[in-house]
Design a protein that fits this description.
heterodimer; A: two-stranded antiparallel ribbon; B: alpha+beta; 9-stranded mixed beta sheet; 30 helices; 46 strands; 30% helix
Chain lengths: 137, 977
Amino acid sequence: MLPDPDPPRTAARAARHTRRNALQPDSECALCGTTNPVALKRSRLENHHAAGQHNDDDLLVVLCLNCHAIATENQHVVDAIRTRPDDTIIDRVRRGLLSIAAFLSQLVDTLVEFASLLDLFCDQLDSRVPTWRLELQ
Amino acid sequence: MTSVDPVATAVRAWTTPTTPPTARSRRPQRIASLPGQLLVFDCETTTDPAQALTFGAWRQCRMVGTNLATDVEGLFYADDFPDTDPAGFAALQDHARTQPGAGGRRLQLLSRSEFVERVFFQLAYRTRATVVGFNLPFDLSRLAIAHGDGRKANYGAFSLLLFAGKEGHAENKHRPRITIHHHSRHQAAIRFGKRLQPDDVDLIPEGSTTGKPDPTYVWPGRFVDLGSLAFALTGRSHSLASACDTFETTPRKTQADGHGRITAEYIDYCRNDVAATADLYRVLTAEFGTHPINVPVDRASSAAAIAKGYLRQMGITPPLEQNLNFPPEVLGHAMCAFYGGRAEAHIRRRPVPVANVDFTSMYPTVDSLLGLWGHLTAQRIEPVDITDELTELLAMVTLDACFQPGLWPRLVGIAEIDPADDIVPIRARFDTPASNSWNTAVTGVTSEHPTWCSVPDLIASTLLTGRPPVVRRAVRFAAVGKQSDLRKVKLRGVLTVDPATDDLWRKVIESRHRTPKDTALHQFLKLFANSGSFGIHAEFNAATLTKGEAVDVNVFGRYDEPFTQRVDRPEVSGVWCFPPFATVICGAARLMLAMLERAVTDLGGTWAFCDTDSMAIVASTAGGRVDGDPAIRALTIGQVDQIRQRFEQLNPYSGAIELLRVDQIADAYVISSKRYALFHRAADRIEIVKRSEHGLGHLLHPNPGGSDWISEFWHHEIATALGLPTTEPDWYDRPAVGRTHITGPHLLTAFRHINAGKPYRDQIKPFNFALFAAGAKPPPGTQPENFRLIGPYATDPAMWPLLRWVNLTDPSRTHRLTTRPTPSAALGDTYRSVLARHATYPETKSLGPDGQPCRRDTTGLLQRRHVQVATITHHGKDTNRIDHVAAGLVDRNDTRTSYGQGPVDLQLELILKAIRLIGASKIARAARITPRQISRLLADTGRPHPNTRRRLIEGIAAHTNGTDTSDTALWHAGTPT
């Protein structure tokens, strides 16, 4: 990696990004658990409007850049964040619910993935440390 | 002078604003954890009085876990440095080109302007990084290109301008100024000011959960002065070198061969200073992080701040928040009974053998004996009338009874008495009537006016006089219930304390004695107990108002009803301030000393001096008369040990902790209160083992690089008193000069004529070091009043007479300083004259062996000076701006808030009595006022103007023709200050 030509300015940019997104020093991605280590000069976390910004500006979830991109794509798939001039409050609630459902669906996928990873982990332990179950009891 | 002297006295008062404070913008919330980014920097300056920036070094660092990573390192130089020092600039360029910087990058070289814009602004403001330095106000002011005086809420502060505008504009208003408000040697409030058109993202408050800008928000900055933090963690003042040594940083601070000439070695020295400062930050914050408290590190400027953080963490609510309806008049009465520690000289200017004994952790100990932890954690505190109970107790109390721990919890209270030669604390003007010096003494007091005292003080009086004081009314502070939100806390992450069941201070002292002395935990527990057990309950700070502004306050003092007074320095009590606790703790400490005094005198002995928690008992191996003097009899060391063992009955601690311990067995030489030395003598040799520096500590070393000059003074003084051969130190005839900082506009204004017409870099600037000439006299023909000489800073004593000195009160002309009278120069005190005055400083609150008030030439055994209260006025705290008072730069009276006598003007009553006695026409003639004015006074149509009052006093004094000095003293005793 090329050396940073202006570390103070880079630090300022990262700090302002963190502030604008209301991220806290101990924030982590709600889906994959990625943290924002201080060793990184640019934040890899962002705020995701779970119900869509137009539908609810305050319902925020911290996500990493990857998970955020997927979450936003999912919102587009269910047509949850596109706004129209003749929107009523009922339309907004409907789309907000769809948007949250899309996020929860992603969360379900993530939990299933975690569970399968744990399965895999247990299989590995069974083969390498056969006594581990006894030791944990 | 008669044996009972009339004196003016003063008591403290509790004040509240007459109008509720207007809603002020809330202080921005700080989160206790720190962001990772740091800017560490240090400046090098010229060695002339201007102390202008030459160059400096900086580092951008990050805390990664507990380690420190440096991202980039650089140097910066004054904008005009290439012109003023081309060789030095070339050395900087060469260094930056050839030497690698920390963090594996090249060393950056920036001008001051580039540094403040591209590094300081980006990191300190935009990134909201922590700015770290040692003595930060000085370094920040080196970066400034101009300054202003703080206005409104910032009155008394400096406003530093760092960013120049473009195209001839002096200031870039799109960049913030820095405001620095000096509070004390170890505390300065540093913050950014507003700027024009800040970006939206800079208006997002710290810790915001929405990320939305708040148009009223101003980022205050986060500045950590490691000098303050080191003081808070150790209780001692540190230089960068001593802090690095104490906390074992890597690297340590190095010494420069010489300052001023810029060489490669000197640049390395500066970079090393920044590296040491950065590592000191790492070590200090790690140490601070061991305390599980929610106090931001940039607010931790004293050990008391840490102690308060712990009390909060334990879930304890401050007493006045917990007892919102506590009667303010009782707080006022408790303040009236509040006096500091007892400090007295008893055998003056005469070497005597002593056993110096001291009480283990006096304030935490009496706190524990009184059971005040139960009060602090109580659901509520109720004042309960105990007049009859106290009268009965005082009638039967004995020294033996005081050694019963069960008595002490009954002493948590105050009482109003009619003093009739009772030995109680008093704050009075003991020396010349015109003096402004107020001293506290424990002495025989008689008064026609009732006085408030703590209950322990009344027990002490009974022990010392053998008869009880007459009690008018008494109040005990009873603890009821227990606060419900108390939580266990681990002190320094190690020692678990349960505030609901443990006595905090007892546990802390016991744990301290179980912990090895050289450990950080031992040091912390000592500091924690000393700072948390007493001082926070007596914390008062003088509020800053703008010039000419004054506010009305309700004064709760010796009366049951408050009176209103207009003051220009209102006092604000600390959050944990609670006068009943402070008063009783101090009173109990004085009771301990009174018990010790009684125990010593009961055995036929005496003592040389006492100071708050210690007493030097005259004692020797064989005991008996000292030098054949029948008045001074030494106890044997065995008898001292008997006394020590007697106090063990009161010992609240388990384990091998002695309550009263023998600190030194040596000889003592005492001048007056807090001015003493302990020494060992072998034949013609004297070895000073302990000496006070009270009254001398504000002066510079007269012989830089030489040995401890204060010990040299004591050595010479004692040797002279003993008739031993001694050589006078060779620095005795040098001008006595001290060092101060230009901490506020009021001091800098003295240099305005010296600064006039000079470019900013050559001016005397905010936070420059400066010199003051102690006790300097004006040249002939100059007004002698308020002559206070201050001068530019120079380390070499040979330079001092060559400097341009300025009188603070008339800075229009400069003076030369000389130690021999000349027609044109100011006459400075020499160390010889300062030390001669110091060596004979009278203990005015005592009488000499001849029964006369102690004079400069008084020696031998002193006696209590029994006094009659002439007037009682109400005062604020005595120790505001203590450094500048010691330096003579401000009058103590100008720093103390006076609330006056209240609704009853005792002095006026005395004046009217005298007028009726002597005759109105005679007094009118003598006072040079009209008989009609006197008639109005007698008709009770208002109070006289201060000038009229002064004339009346002078008239009465003149009428007595000075023959009745006690009368003269009585009138002057009540002169308002």
